[in-house]
Amino acid sequence: PLMVSTFLVASSEASIEARGRVVASSWPGREPVTYDASRRRGLGRAGTKGRRSVTDPLVTVVVLNYDGAHLLPDCLDALAAQDLPEGRLAVWVVDNASRDGSLALLGDRYPWVRVLANPTNVGFAGGNNRALREVATPFVALLNNDARPEPDWLGRLLEPFAEAGADRLAAVTS
Questions:
Q1: Looking at 10-113, which runs of residues are DSSP E strands?
Q2: Which of 2, 41, 51, 112 is deepest in the core (most CB within 10 A)?
Q3: DSSP three-state, residue 167
């Protein structure tokens, strides 16, 4: 499947340190968030539903959906398998008024996913913009619902932010 994603720094105040650590302070008055790329651990598989802690997420993955109940399991199961440390990933699905049972599927099988349900189909830009206005993590990734990212996808996207000169890095895409 086609994978389209964008990885963005949520704020110009985000700061990055080298040697495998990402430190980001995205909003004034917030404590810095640290990600140690050398110590990635799995979040678990989709079968761990309801047991995942998202106390201090570093990145939010936003998945836009419209009548994609047949696509969401592969996408969300792949996100559940990301090799980021426990609690560092938040997954949001923006649903553009689906009529195919997508919301029921999300509620039944993916209670760890935050769902933003639009009453009407506001399109690709409208749906993603709704989520982007609410995201508070230092980083956000936009992912199509037909994508199945490899387990190291997010970790590899974060790695450039831990390199020398990362303070000038604004976006990474894959």
A1: 21-24, 33-36, 59-65, 89-96
A2: 112
A3: helix
Tell me which amino acid residue 27 is: W
Determine contact, residues 106/49, Cβ cutoff 8 Å.
no
Q: Give Cα separations from 32 to 22, 29, 148 (angstroms).
A: 10, 9, 30
Instruction: Answer yes or no: are the C-beta atoms of 147 and 3 closer than 8 Å.
Output: yes
Supply φ then ψ for residue 22, to 5 degrees.
-115, 125
Q: Which residues pair with 8 in a beta bridge?
A: 140, 171
CA distance 39 to 9: 21
CB 61 within 8 A of CB 79: yes
Token output for 114: 């935050």
β-pairing, 5-9 vs 171-173, is antiparallel
Report how far residue 121's alpha carbon sits from residue 142's, in angstroms, rounded to the nearest whole number.
Answer: 18
> In tens digits, what is the pLDDT along the chain, a chain of 174 residues?
333 444 444 433 333 332 233 333 333 343 444 444 443 333 333 333 333 444 589 999 999 999 999 999 999 999 999 999 999 999 999 999 999 999 999 999 999 999 999 999 999 999 999 999 999 998 999 999 999 999 999 999 988 887 888 888 877 566
Residue 134, amino acid: E
